[in-house]
C-alpha cells in the first residue's frame, strides 16, 4: 500500500514536471519566434539600427554598415557616436558634447528624438533623423538608435525653398518695375501737368481772369495731392532707399513715414547704417518688418512698437516688438495676420522666424546667417 502511494506521488510529480517543461518549451519557442521576427525587422529595414551604451556601440544592422560606409560590425563598434559626425553641428555645438547630452537625455527620459548631421567614413556628411529608445537586454540597460538618412527630404525642401524664393524674387522685380513706371513715367507727367496748371493759373490772374485762375489753382492743388499719392504708392511697392542706401536707412524711413499718422510711438534701433547685405536678405527682412509693423499697428492696440536690427557673429537678427494685447501664435488660421506668409518668406530667404506673444509683449524675431554678405 505504501509503495502504491509513493508511486502515485512520483507520477504526479513527473506530470507536473512535464507540464512545466512543456510550458518552458512553449515560452522558448515564442522567444525564438520573437527573436527571429525582431532580427528580420532589424536586418530588413533600410534605416540604420544600432545598440549602444553610454560610450560605445555594441551591435548594428547591415543598413548601418551601408549608410556609414563601414566594412564590418567590429569596425563600426570601435567608434564613438561622435566619430560618425563632423566636429561641429550646424548650430556650432561640439558634436561630441551634443551626442553625449542626447544619450544622457535618452537614458534619463526613456527616449530622445532629434535632427543630426552625420558623417560617413569617406568624409561626406548627410542630414539624419535620429530616435533613441531605452531597452533592456540581458538585464542590461541599452539604447536602440534608429538613424534615417533624410538627404532626399532636405533636397526636396531646398528645392521648394528655391522655387518659393524665385517666386518672391519675381514679385519683387514686378513691384520694382511698377514702382519705376509710376515714379518715372506717370509721376513725371503729372508733375509736368501740375506746373502747367500753375502757370496757366498765374497767366489768368495776370489777365484779370480771377475765377478761371481760382479753378485752375484748385485743379493744380488736386494734381499735387495726386502726385503725393502716386509717390506713396510707388514707394510702397518698392522703396527706392532700399537699393540706394540699404536696409537700415529704409527701416528708419518706414518708421518716420508711419509714426506721424498713428497714435503710437514707433522706434527703430540699429547700428549698422553703413553696412550693406545681400539684396535678397535686405528685401526679405524689410518686407517682414513692414508686415509685422503694420500688424502691430492695426491689431495689437500697442502704445509702443520697436524695430531692432543687430548683428551677432555671422547672424543678422531682426526683432519687431510691441506692448499690445498679444495673441496665440499657434492659432495662425484664426488670427489671419499673415504670419505663415512671413515665416515662409523667412525660410525661402534662408532664415528662421520665431514668434512669442503674451499680454503686454509680442515679438517677431527673424534670424538669417550672413553667408552672402556683400
What's the short version?
This protein has 374 residues and is of the alpha+beta class. It has helices at residues 2-44, 62-68, 73-77, 95-109, 151-206, 210-237, 240-244, 247-258, 279-300, 332-335, 339-348, and strands spanning 48-52, 57-60, 111-119, 125-137, 140-149, 265-270, 304-312, 315-322, 351-358, 361-369.
Secondary structure blueprint with pairings:
Layout: H1 2-44, E1 48-52, E2 57-60, H2 62-68, H3 73-77, H4 95-109, E3 111-119, E4 125-137, E5 140-149, H5 151-206, H6 210-237, H7 240-244, H8 247-258, E6 265-270, H9 279-300, E7 304-312, E8 315-322, H10 332-335, H11 339-348, E9 351-358, E10 361-369
Parallel strand pairs: 6-7
Antiparallel strand pairs: 1-2, 1-5, 3-4, 4-5, 7-8, 8-10, 9-10
Helix pairs in contact: 5-6, 5-11, 8-9, 9-11
Describe the 3D structure.
By secondary structure, the chain is an alpha+beta fold. The protein folds into three domains: 1-42; 45-149, 2-Layer Sandwich (Beta-Lactamase); 242-374, Heat Shock Protein 90, CATH 3.30.565. It has eleven helices and ten strands. It has helices spanning 2-44, 62-68, 73-77, 95-109, 151-206, 210-237, 240-244, 247-258, 279-300, 332-335, 339-348; strands spanning 48-52, 57-60, 111-119, 125-137, 140-149, 265-270, 304-312, 315-322, 351-358, 361-369. The chain has a five-stranded antiparallel β-sheet, sandwiched between helices. The chain is elongated. The mean pLDDT is 79.
